[in-house]
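Readers of this paper often ask what the protein records in our data store actually look like. Such a record has a labelled line for the sequence and another for the backbone structure tokens. Nothing more is needed to write down the fold, since each code stands for a local backbone conformation. The remainder of this section carries one protein's record, kept here as part of the documentation.
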Amino acid sequence: RARTWAIFLVAISSGALRFSAAPVVAAEIDNEDPVDVVVLVDESSSLSSAAVRAEKDALREIIQSPEIEDRGIRVAVLPFSSGESSPRRVDSCAFVKIERGPESKSDLMECADQIVKQGNRGNSDTDFASAIGGALETFDRSEASKVILLMTDGK
């Protein structure tokens, strides 16, 4: 059986969120399969304060979306910029199975609060290749369909 996956792009421009409803790259995902979603969140220095707020708000909306509750969907978040510490592994951002009610979502909501603009020299750029590589390494269920959601200002 072929493995399935998709990559979506969420662009942040001047603090406004633009979401591509159609995947940038995709393979068909069978609704009966479990689904693992890794949300890559850009923390590079090119982001404005409004863009960082927009990313956090978009992440919270995804986490709280009733459409993904109780469907075998797990979500993890991987903040990224550049440098040796990117993508940044944060305990509260690890895979969580999204279920009805706030309990299953509390770690990921805490994770959203930990998204910060990176300003340190050496980790303030945007390394998309490392971020996608980190997402691929995060997937740990061979039977699950895999989705990567990329939030970025594109710079």
Q: What stands out?
A: The longest strand covers residues 5-13. The two ends are 37 Å apart (CA to CA). Strands lie at 5-13, 16-19, 25-26, 35-42, 73-80, 96-97, 145-152. The chain is about 25% helix and 25% strand.
